[in-house]
Amino acid sequence: ERASGEGRRRLFGVSCRVSAEGKGQARRGEKKGDRMSSRFFARGSSSEEDETETESEEYSTTEETESESETESSSEEEEEKSGVNRFLVSDSDSDSDLEDARRVVRSAKDKRVEELTHIVEEIRNKMKINDWVGISSNFDKLNKQLDKIKRSGALTKTPKIYVKALIEMEDFLTAALGNKEARKTMSKSNAKALNSMRQNLKKNNKEYEAEIKSRREAPEESDSYSDDSESDSDSYESGSEGEGEEEGFEKVKTKGEKKKVPFIEMDPKDISYGMIMKKCQELIMARGRKGTDKHEQAKTMEFMVRVSKTESQRAQMMMNLVSAYFDMTTGLHTHLPIPIWNRCCMIILDLLNQLEKYPYISVDDAYEQDYSEEQEGPTEGDAVTIAGNLLGCLERLDDEWFKSLQVIDPHTEDYMNRLKDEPVILAVAQKVSKYFAKAGAEPVVARISLRQVEHFYYKTEAVYNAMKALVEIKKKEASESAPAEEEETNPAAAAAKATPVGDEEDVPPVELPSDFTMEEDVFKLMKDLVHYIYKNADERTKARAMLCDIYHKSIHNDFYTARDLLLMSHLQEAVHNMDIATQLLFNRTMAQIGLCAFRKGLIQDAHYCLSELYGSGRIREILAQGVALRYHDRTPEQEKLEKRRQMPFHMHINLELLEAVNLICAMLLETIYLVNINQMETKRRGSKSFWGLVGHYD
What we know:
mainly alpha; two-stranded antiparallel ribbon
């Protein structure tokens, strides 16, 4: 009986283990598919185990086996439940997060009204600083944006935000016109924009007289796009004033919020003298670094010019602004964009007028400016020195103008328009020369005089008179466009400062200053400039001035004076030791002397001058009127330098005329030799180029 009992217990235990293992496997399979079924099997297994426990106490071994399997299955079931719960919780959380961060879809109408709001905000910012050039340009953008909305068909009536902007501009214009003292201190460009804005606004408001009248009668209405607009398309006031003001109290910004405001968006009243100097130092330190946005730097500099606290600080910021404009070139072989060049001219003219108006401000290129934030600024009237190089700015303007003429197609209208900018450079040179003459810097004035000579030496008397007539026309146009009470004001750079750097099309042309004058006689002008250079300049400047004077006398048929100057100066002996630019000028001068001698009937002298030029076989290169096609003897850098030395098209010498004169002179001289063939000529000077062409023709 004991053996049979043990056998039954072993048999029953094996069967229970098999059934428990089968149920565990079934449970694992079921929990992959259906969680509810796994729970059902778990309950079924536990009930069966309870029944086996109540049958007999003698099945202790089976009970222990079942309890172990029960523990394993229950632990797996708990892990399964906890995993499912975790999955369900994370799923619900992610759904809630998606609902919270749900993307807001805005209609096209809301986007258009937001653009309209931004333009109105920009107009209000310009009104704060009395910038009529910026107001005028943004007013045009506002009308263009309104036209876009009308064409889209989403407009049922005039937006109230637009009507309110018209009312604000009208009131601000009336106040500006009534303040005569402020108008007298305006710049010409700002006053011109004020007058044009008065006409444009009056013409524009006639179309919206009814809306303006109803708006003035009920100013408490909200500025929304339309009556059925949502709250997010309301006026620009609802988002800013509603949050900041409650029951007459204004919300004070924390220190962290103030730091987030960009410098160019700060209120000018919150900006101190030291803050401007510190920001200027940051921009100067960032110049030349990789990743520096040059346009953003220029915009910041323009803002600092407008918010400067003293006249000396404004002059310093203007010098830094010119340097920021010069940085916008992409390389040494590309010229400065013409709109940026116009901005530089406006700023420099404004700076020179300011130096003339406030004589206690001086400019020194060796002065080290203090950019510390703790300083409070000098007292108005005390002697102040600012860091800057006016001569360098003038030479850079002249070089950029010259480089632009090298790349512009000479057969287009753009080339002619660019030539009309030459009086602007002469006006800047005249003002800079007067400033340094008062300071007693004679060598600097001599360098400026050479720049002026290089603009006049190749012009005939007829061309000079035409240029003088152009100057008078430009000055007359500038005086007619400016108000009568502002005739004595200086030409300011308000257009360059108010117009953003990216909007080059909005930059107006540079106006000539009213005090710019040109000499009546070009010969007297050249004589005065050259004699001043002979007295105060260095050797290179004197040599170039001498060559320019000889060139000028040659094109006016004064051959003997030009020849005597050349022989007395001994330039033909020392020119080989000079720089390449001076050697090119010497070659051009020799060509003009040869043409002058031919016009005078001096065939022998003309042939002497021209035969040396044609003896090299590279007449285009030595006159800087073309580049040779042979690339094997020069590096790419040398090719670029040679292209930079090329003369603009209006300064070219007619090569066909030059070749014809050379061959005619050679033919006439050879004819004399043929006639006197019986006479023994020991010293015969023949022309190899002429006989080469004769042999080729035969």
